[in-house]
């Protein structure tokens, strides 16, 4: 068969929905033993036999640096957009202060952490906060269903601390290897450039751990009324470390003192018709008027072990730690009191990373946290530039002295007074930089286990999702069912059936109502449009039908 014939056959196959090699490809089509044309490989052609799990010490972690498949996958993902953020592109921000209570609940905080920003009642630390949506572009409406980013940069006396999280307390996945797949399913189709419920639920119906997030995201909790009146969460599990080097697991939560407000889908659509920048405007005008929004920072603390008494793994980002067992303990209050003077210089160029911790704060073995810690800073170097930490919005408000030199857009040298500028290495006997004394004992967790690619033992994908469904008020459940029905109405039958099954495993009523909603849609009743077209398809035709003729000029 000639190359031309082969390309024609490939084009025809593509029209029938089969993945094919693009015209002009240099690939010769050879297959390794056990492969077929649909076998997933790396860019190096290595067959991928496990695309669900990082390689970790034991199935709880930590991850290891030689995770080549993950590093290649996430590095490419970090560079998919230029220069807009791949995720969290649409954002708003503000400056403020964080005031420490000096305690954690009623206890002395130094029992758990030696981090200085927490240790003195009334101590103030400057902060910058960036709120955002996750999956949509930089000028997308702020009424779209999406998690909201909630990233806080603390300019502490020990350097910057970035607490990077979302408004919702859980996430879709528990392993960072799946993050590019998750976001790809929520981004536009690479052929049609349109987002679709079918793509999103195709991923979700094959990822049962996402059901807890679904119980939130497709309810009114998926559309906060604005940025001021939404909760925040670090989502990941971190550690606190005290002066003796003893660590505990910790979860962070921001509680808005303005209260919490969410929108149903029809309410959000009505707002979008009038103002698609409403949340940015709300934040800016509130601060301008002196109505400074405030959040209390609360933490949950757990001993640093596997906790076999729980029916979930405490390092699993798809789970919530029960508040009755692990109470929310207040540690301080944040007030946003100053708007940016220039959006691009401050909000757009603000760069956050989950690896930006100060002494007394540490990493847990949370697989999502470990993957994000590479990805976030790698993204910032690519998106903003090698020297992004020299920008005023990102620079620490304290002494900085490094041996890092050069790179694109370097505009000063991070040198110390009296430093020998010829010496950009350490150790040195020629007036170079010296190591700092330790602030406390090193935290040294012990590990014993085989290096494996395995899911955690206690997945328990459905219990908390079902509990959340039952905790919703009836109007929230109605909105959840309506939104899922609308998003799934045009999806393939196999995806609809899988989602009904997953919802039923969470709660029988959830599955029953979703099945009824989809059946009604197929029958041309609730959720369907004329001629069984989706709302989106109807809008395409309506735009032409109701438009007004105009004469050329």
UniProtKB/TrEMBL annotation:
Q: Where is the composition biased (Polar residues)?
A: 1-10, 36-56
Q: Which SMART domains match?
A: Catalase
Give the EC number: 1.11.1.6
The record, for Gene3D superfamilies, names: Catalase core domain
**TM spans (from-to):** none
Give the residues the record marks as binding heme. 376
What's in the GO CC field? cytoplasm
Q: Where is this region: Disordered?
A: 1-60
Enumerate the GO terms in the molecular function aspect.
catalase activity; heme binding; metal ion binding
| Keywords recorded for this protein, A-Z | Heme, Hydrogen peroxide, Iron, Metal-binding, Oxidoreductase, Peroxidase
- PROSITE patterns xref list: CATALASE_1, CATALASE_2, CATALASE_3
Provide the cofactor list for this protein: heme
Name the active site residues: 88, 166
An example Gene Ontology biological process: response to hydrogen peroxide
Catalyzed reaction equations: 2 H2O2 = O2 + 2 H2O
Keyword presence, Cytoplasm = no
Pfam families of this UniProt entry?
A: Catalase, Catalase-rel
What is this protein for, i.e. what is its function? Decomposes hydrogen peroxide into water and oxygen; serves to protect cells from the toxic effects of hydrogen peroxide.
- Identify this protein by name: Catalase
């Amino acid at each position: 068969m000639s190359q031309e014939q082969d390309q024609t056959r490939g084009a025809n196959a593509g029209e029938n929905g089969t993945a094919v090699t693009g015209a002009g490809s240099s690939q010769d089509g050879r297959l390794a033993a056990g492969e077929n044309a649909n076998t997933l490989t790396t860019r190096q052609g290595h067959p991928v036999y496990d695309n669900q799990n990082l390689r970790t010490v034991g199935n709880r972690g930590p991850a290891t640096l030689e995770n080549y498949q993950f590093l290649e996958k996430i590095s490419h993902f970090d560079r998919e957009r230029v220069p807009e953020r791949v995720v969290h592109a649409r954002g708003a921000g503000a400056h403020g202060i964080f005031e420490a209570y000096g305690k954690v609940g009623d206890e002395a905080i130094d029992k758990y952490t030696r981090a200085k920003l927490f240790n003195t009642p009334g101590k103030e630390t400057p902060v910058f906060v960036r709120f955002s949506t996750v999956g949509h572009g930089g000028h997308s409406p702020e009424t779209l269903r999406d998690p909201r980013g909630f990233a806080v940069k603390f300019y502490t006396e020990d350097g910057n601390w970035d607490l990077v999280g979302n408004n919702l307390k859980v996430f879709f996945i528990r392993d960072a290897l799946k993050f590019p797949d998750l976001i790809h399913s929520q981004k536009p189709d690479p052929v049609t450039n349109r987002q679709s419920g079918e793509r999103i639920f195709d991923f979700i119906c094959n990822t049962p751990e996402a059901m807890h997030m679904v119980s939130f995201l497709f309810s009114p909790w998926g559309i906060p009324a604005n940025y001021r009146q939404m909760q925040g969460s670090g989502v990941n599990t971190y550690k606190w470390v005290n002066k003796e080097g003893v660590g505990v697991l910790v979860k962070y939560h921001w509680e808005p003192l303005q209260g919490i407000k969410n929108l149903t889908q029809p309410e959000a659509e009505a707002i979008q018709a009038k103002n698609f920048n409403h949340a940015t405007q709300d934040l800016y005008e509130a601060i301008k008027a002196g109505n400074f929004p405030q959040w209390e920072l609360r933490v949950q603390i757990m001993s640093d072990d596997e906790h076999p008494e729980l029916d979930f793994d405490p390092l699993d980002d798809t789970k919530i730690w029960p508040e009755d067992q692990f109470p929310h303990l207040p540690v301080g209050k944040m007030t946003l009191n100053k708007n940016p003077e220039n959006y691009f210089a401050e909000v757009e160029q603000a760069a956050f990373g989950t690896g930006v911790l100060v002494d007394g704060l540490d990493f847990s073995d949370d697989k999502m946290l470990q993957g994000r810690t590479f990805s976030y800073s790698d993204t910032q170097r690519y998106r903003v530039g090698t020297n992004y930490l020299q920008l005023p919005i990102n620079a620490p408000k304290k002494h900085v002295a490094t041996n890092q030199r050069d790179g694109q857009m370097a505009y000063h040298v991070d040198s110390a007074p009296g430093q020998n500028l010829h010496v950009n290495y350490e150790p040195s006997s020629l007036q170079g930089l010296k190591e700092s004394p330790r602030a406390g004992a090193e935290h040294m967790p012990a590990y014993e286990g085989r290096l494996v690619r395995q899911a955690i033992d206690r997945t328990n994908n459905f219990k908390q999702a079902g509990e959340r469904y039952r905790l919703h008020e009836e109007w929230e459940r109605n909105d959840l069912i309506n939104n899922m029905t609308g998003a799934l109405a045009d999806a393939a039958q196999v995806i609809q059936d899988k989602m009904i099954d997953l919802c039923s495993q969470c709660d029988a009523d959830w599955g029953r109502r979703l099945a009824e909603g989809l059946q009604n849609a197929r029958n041309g009743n609730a959720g369907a449009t004329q001629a069984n077209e989706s709302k989106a398809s109807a809008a395409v035709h309506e735009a032409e039908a109701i438009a007004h003729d105009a004469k050329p000029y």
